[in-house]
Amino acid sequence: MQLSRDDLLQAYRRMRLIREFEDAVHDEFSAGNIPGFVHLYAGEEASAVGFCMHLDERDAIASTHRGHGHCIAKGCDERAMMFEIFGKKDGLCGGKGGSMHIADLSKGMMGANGIVGGGPPLICGAALSAKTLKTGGVAIAFVGDGGSNQGTTFESYNLAKVWNLPAIFVIEDNGYAETTSSSWSVAGSQVDRGKGFGMPAVQVDGSDFFAVWEVAREAIERARGGGGPSLVHVKCMRYYGHFEGDAATYKAPDEVARYKATKDPLMLFRQRVTEAGLLDGQALDAIDREAKARIEQCVAEAKAAPLPTEKDLLTDVYTSPY
Fold it and tell me: How many domains does the chain have?
């Protein structure tokens, strides 16, 4: 299977939109305009887009507290996302969830999640539903290296294998969980962990969109075909701290700068497609301008939008005495 020109443009557009979205949220949070906590995905774009480009309306994903990139990659509306992060009434979840709880079930986005390791059990349920109803759908959990050590994650590996579910566990290893190096905190290798449960497992360079896209294709085709679950260990780098306000003093002073200069996923994508003559720089520059303008518009509208009202307080709950 080959990527068409339209596929390549779509991939770059989504990666650039994620980058512009995250940079804008960083600036707005730093200025004191966004309530609550935010955890940014900048630097990891090739992982979310490389996987989600293979998905359709049958498929579901579950995210982490670092969920903006997964949302955009799965097709969630970036304007409604920005409204949500600003806590506005017309946000994707009515302004009630904020950054860590964005969800859109109509897009198969089961939600960002403030619970570390909360996603894997959810996608086991989605995968079981797809298998039972014979929809051909798959379910993917994006999990950080910190979340990979949670008992819920291991239990989900076991359940997915025992029930032969169309499930994929994507370990996005940005090196530090919150502030502790995964080289110290993760025993053994992620690939060996997957194989220990009898799953196919592979490691991939998260800066290389094309490498991620290919391993994602294999895992998703296997799941759709009844071959059961897989694990993919994506090695990547987050450009900002664990959360906004984290000084990231646990990293070497030039660590992120060196990665950006040599392994930035958008930069590498541009180099590869232009050198191969698949796309020209002008088309990519146009996408850069469009993405920046789009996110600037989303921010401006979110700032001006109304907050939820007192009447909204008891909506979206299971029961109400009123």
Answer: 1
